[in-house]
């Protein structure tokens, strides 16, 4: 098992998620080697003792485990298999754990490229938003062998909630679980925005409507908790850009296609998210599709 006294963690991708995750690895005593295309993203980590590496290969050469937290499969491909990528620097027996939301093909390609080498390549995407990354309470869904999961346990626990760090199956299973979670959550978002808009236009008080849903068989975590970010605070969660939400919905549709399951509803939700992205911009928050409905009915959905 990796422990903080003897393990160096390499981390590539210090954005909304990676910045909080590295902060917690450091607070938990792990030595860090970091890289990002934006060096300024590493300033605080370096001031607190992290080492900067110029390339992903250098990160890998200096680490026992390399973690990637990158926007899209294309970025993960480039950072792992491109010039000066992780695979050209990683030591024999080393670990590379991709915690980005991605698809099984990415790590599968890397596994094929490095066939014959003794490498441990896992996927361990997360839920819990940037706030969960910042306070070390992420949910983690790991794909890999039981032995690899056990080896990574301490590292995962430095970033996540121990009760919600799950070994969900073999390599690739973590990505599949994470895409299912996002697809369902985004579907809840669109469905909730629709019924709230219709109810309000029909003259029902918004909070009375929400409480009625909560008291009914139609209740969901989204209606009870998550929607309040918009309804109470007008916060559409810019910590997760709608461009990345659209990427995740597209990846779920790709996965569905790859396994031969038609997903009419998921495809519809993806199109609604893409409309919101076109209308409000790539960097708008993941909950901006609710704004589409607010614009349609000509009023914001807010409660006291
Ligand atoms: P982000 O865009 O904020 O951060 C990505 C970081 O990667 C940036 O700092 C960027 O400079 C860096 N980067 C890009 N290309 C690089 C390269 N070639 N080499 C080195 N660094 C590079 O994204 P994020 O919100 O942190 O999301 C990261 C991943 O986590 C995504 O796959 C996303 O879907 C997933 N995720 C995000 C959230 C959230 O709430 N933000 C929640 C769960 C999962």
Protein described:
One of its GO terms (biological process) is L-valine catabolic process. This is 3-hydroxyisobutyrate dehydrogenase-related beta-hydroxyacid dehydrogenase. Belongs to the HIBADH-related family. GO terms for molecular function: 3-hydroxyisobutyrate dehydrogenase activity; NAD binding; NADP binding. With 304 residues, this protein is α/β, with parallel strands linked by helices. It has 2 domains: 8-171, Rossmann fold, CATH 3.40.50; 176-297, N-(1-d-carboxylethyl)-l-norvaline Dehydrogenase, domain 2. It is built from 15 helices and 9 strands. The protein has helices at residues 16-27, 43-47, 56-61, 73-81, 86-89, 104-113, 129-134, 146-159, 173-201, 206-214, 221-226, 228-233, 242-259, 264-280, 289-297; strands spanning 8-12, 31-35, 51-52, 65-68, 95-98, 120-123, 126-127, 138-143, 160-169. The longest helix has 29 residues, at 173-201. Bound molecules: nicotinamide-adenine-dinucleotide. Residues 12-18, 35-38, 41, 69-71, 75, 78-79, 100-101, 126-127, 129-130, 239-240, 244, 248 line the site of nicotinamide-adenine-dinucleotide.
